[in-house]
Design goal:
The chain has 174 residues and is α+β, with helices and mostly antiparallel strands. It is 14% helix and 29% strand. It is built from two helices and 13 strands, in the order H-H-E-E-E-E-E-E-E-E-E-E-E-E-E. Strands 4-5-6-11 form a four-stranded antiparallel β-sheet, with no helix packed on it. It has a four-stranded antiparallel β-sheet with strand order 7-8-9-10, with no helix packed on it. Strands 3-13-12 form a three-stranded antiparallel β-sheet, with no helix packed on it. The longest helix is centred in the first third of the chain and has 20 residues.
Length: 174
């Protein structure tokens, strides 16, 4: 003998819910989907500070790419009005350092430049100054220490420059 369904699908779904009956597959799948969506949305949220995959801190209210926030050097001082961005002795000739929100370079002896540390391609922070180039780890864009112009990689725009000068032992915003 074979199993024969004696009721139509409509009759099966019109049954009243009785306590103790098993959940339908649809209810279980909808519940699992809702739980999964809640987990994904919770994972997308950010706190007030966190750390990205490069180890750099970021906030849930970042400044636009290429701009400096009010606390641009990380010490509570702003990068205007002659605030010290770095010690001149810390910036190697033919190279540079990353300090606060800036990459400060010395392409030739006595000439100092400062660029935003935020890559113009995807907004990642650059992480290295080496062999006359500023490097971004996210997509391997490289920029000139003299002009901030891209020398390779997917970036097509220069790093925004901030005018600086040497004032005593310090590099300051001009």
């Amino acid at each position: 003998m074979t199993d024969v369904q004696t009721r139509t699908d409509a009759e099966l779904t019109d049954e009243p819910n009785r306590p103790g009956t098993a959940s339908t597959r649809r209810v279980v799948l909808l519940g699992a989907g809702g739980l999964g969506a809640a987990c994904v949305l919770a994972a997308c949220g950010t706190g007030t500070t966190s750390t990205n995959s490069n180890g750099s801190d970021f906030s849930d209210n970042p400044a636009p790419a290429g701009s400096a926030g009010a606390d641009s050097d990380g010490t509570g001082n702003t990068a205007t009005g002659g605030s010290a961005l770095a010690l001149a002795a810390d910036v190697p000739e033919g190279g540079g350092i990353i300090k606060g929100e800036y990459v400060i370079t010395q392409p030739v002896a006595g000439t100092y430049k400062a660029f935003s540390k935020v890559c113009t391609h995807a907004g990642c922070d650059v992480n290295k100054v080496d062999a006359g180039e500023i490097s971004c780890p996210c997509h391997n864009s490289k920029f000139s220490i003299e002009t901030g112009q891209p020398t390779s990689g997917p970036a097509t725009k220069a790093l925004p420059e901030t005018k600086v000068k040497k004032d005593g032992d310090n590099i300051v915003a001009a």
